[in-house]
Amino acid sequence: MDHIVIIGNGISGVTAARHIRKLSDTETSSAQAKKITIVSAETDYFFSRTALMYVYMGHMKFEHTQPYENWFWKKNKINLKKGYVKTVETTSKTLQFANGDTLQYDKLIIATGSKPNKFGWPGQDLKGVMGMYHKQDLDNLEKYAPNNKVCKHAVIVGGGLIGIELAEMLHSRHIPVTFLVREHSFWDAVLPKGESAMINREILKNGIDLRLGVNLKEIKAYENGQVKSVIIEETGEEIDCNVVGLTAGVSPNIDFLKESENQTEPGRSIETGRGVKVNRFLETNIPDVYAIGDCAEQHEGIDQRRPIEAVWYTGRMMGETVAQTICGNRIAYKPGHWFNSAKFFDIEYQTYGWVWAQPKENEARFYWEHHKGNKCIHINYDKNTREFIGINNLGIRMRHEFFDKVLTEKRSVDYVLEHLADANFDPEFYKLHEPEIVAKFNQENHTNIQLKKKSWKRIFQTS
């Protein structure tokens, strides 16, 4: 019986375990039964990492973030081992743990996720400095920022999705927040100008002290080793604070593999770059060793995706894919069309296909923004062929299935606008804006696109 060991109990590792069990235990499966062990140093049981913010905000308890009851693992014959893997010895197929334990494997899946970036700032390891990636971060936040009496001020460093989530969390407990963002507009390496400016306004509207175009110089401490203040690089300004959130991006959590290289025979080290190097089948350079999720790095990005994808749904897809390969059906990882979603305080964000911060040479753009400044859509298309390339929508929900089909069929921008109301997924009785959007596109592009009758009927029924 093959022993499958999975390091990491996030969405990637747990999805792989579930699907390996399902595939190897079915009566019609040609795969042999597997022994499965999930190793984690973080928590006893799998939880939804994206829900941590809602625990702090009081919308749910931590146990509500666990999709499976505690008995699920034993019933499905998935062994759980809590411990920190110090090194991987690939010749003998042995894991060495920090406490001296060892564990043998037949096949190994590395699914260790991400860790917050640290750039050598003085004071970055002080008490009260944290990311917001792990259960331990939530515990630290409860310890150092339970309310605005214990934490009179917090500083967040880094303007990505996790940074704005942490700002919303602290804001929910009425803790004043200063938000240091290196870019000159929020997330402007990803968002075009209009969307980025909208998020700037939303952050400020919620009373966050947003500082754009600034960098952290150092974090200062009291004598007891706890955070006292931060210093801004450009101005030398000192800002008193009790908590510092480091949210300047993430990196693959693979330090233990770097340590393993020193104890491995030449040619038997697992190849790493920023992450664990894998091919399209999520296989490393070492037979029977795979990597999935945030820690996996493709030798070359798929389509226009980055080689490392720290996204929840791609981690789940990688888990499903590697399970097929391990159970005898070797298939390549094919993530399909790019999509993502997030929430910036009260503004929901979705993207389907590609809408870069700056258009490429062959691309044309159409941007519509609601007069209140809290909704927009941004459509990207080929200016020569008119093929639809992608869409950003903020404050308006759109259907994934619609855009997945449109991208697969390589439909035109005209087709998308004609059927735009069919794509809308806002709740019933929400005001719809498709006529205004199409009218603006027609005016700017001297076209005469008409919404399909089915779309018009829906608009008038729900407006």
From TrEMBL:
Name the needed cofactors.
Answer: FAD
Q: Which InterPro entries match?
A: FAD-bd_OxRdtase (IPR050260), FAD/NAD-bd_sf (IPR036188), FAD/NAD-binding_dom (IPR023753)
Q: Which keywords does this Swiss-Prot/TrEMBL entry list? A: FAD, Flavoprotein
FAD/NAD(P)-binding domain boundaries: 3-304
One Pfam family per UniProt: Pyr_redox_2
Write down the PANTHER family for this protein, in alphabetical order. NITRITE REDUCTASE [NAD(P)H], PYRIDINE NUCLEOTIDE-DISULFIDE OXIDOREDUCTASE DOMAIN-CONTAINING
Family statement: Belongs to the FAD-dependent oxidoreductase family.
Write the protein's name. Answer: NAD(P)/FAD-dependent oxidoreductase
Species of origin reads Hwangdonia seohaensis
